[in-house]
Please model this.
Amino acid sequence: MADAIHGLSPRKDGPLIKVHCAALAASLLESELFGHEKGAFTGASARKRGRFELANEGTLFLDEIGEIDQNIQIKLLRVLQERKFERVGGEETIETDVRIVAATNKDLKAEIEKGNFREDLYFRLNVVNIHVPPLRERKDDLPLLITAFLKEFAQENGKKINGINDRARSCLYAYNWPGNVRELRNCMESAVVMSQGSLITEDDLPPTVRDGARDGDFIRIPLGCTMEEAEAIIIRETISAQKGNKTKAAEILGIGRKTLHRKLPPGAGWAEEEIDGNDGAGNVGR
Model:
């Protein structure tokens, strides 16, 4: 997201500087952000420019912003308000012009109530809020992500991979991806390394993904039911999984909305107007 924001902004020709706030101790993070002068502390053998200087006229991405301590929060607030700071151990005031993009997986409002995060900094940062849902809630992204990762790792490992088979695809869609896109990326890299053919199979996937998929959301069809009954179960469960969105259910099933309507179980209670996106009063919906 930070890459996309920077790349599509008027600052795209400027630098994009990234800092993982959780990876550094408070003393190191201060130096990393604001720089330091020679002799400012033990080991400071030369002047170092901080990320705010390096990101001037560009974008500074602060990942895991919820992990920084109170002292750094105060200094960060000053930079955001005044666009000025001093290097650690220095007296020269430096001006900077940066766009700040900050990310966190914490509930910052809850952190404010606990006294861990400054409310004034929160409101200063929270000008435009972009909520990125977890991968399990946006599985429509899976085809593009899988294709991109397969291409990347096939080239990296000198393999010719044409795609994934149906069973492997079912596993990837059924799994809930607690590690989000990073986990999917690692999964695809592992699958490419383990693959012995041109298609990724279920056996190529990491055991955690295979086993997790088996425990995921599946449609259970009783033995002995007819094909018509099985089809009705699949349609009903797919619509339910999509929270009543028939258009989306039809896309997942690979059929048109009219076909979906025709195949709906008798007495299911879904009116034709709902399928066609018209509520009967002339109002068009999803």
